[in-house]
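Quick start: read one record
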Amino acid sequence: MTREQILTDANGMALYYFTPDTLTKSACTGACAKMWLPLLSKAAPTHAAALSGTFRVVNGVNGHQVSYNGHLLYRYTGDSTLGQARGDGLYSKWFVATPGLAAAAIGAPSTTSGSKGTGW
């Protein structure tokens, strides 16, 4: 079985996106942003490998948050070690970001499919 590559932060922890977000606005703030930590940076990250997508920095309610192909990125506090992706599919709204993540549509929430739980 082949494991799909995922995007990770500088420490190797899995990165996620939240389907209710838009290109420029995070729907995960306050208590949500304490469980799902926004990936913050003043400059767009670089990556040693060539990726098909584009990193950007969006200045929003959570600060200077990194996006990949228009999807704001987060880390999940439920992941405690490298290789974990416990938040993937959580509440049918949180998904692991992959290098092939499709570009988000302008002004529309992110979309994907999933089947784990309900809620935030």
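Residues 31-35 form the longest helix (5 residues).
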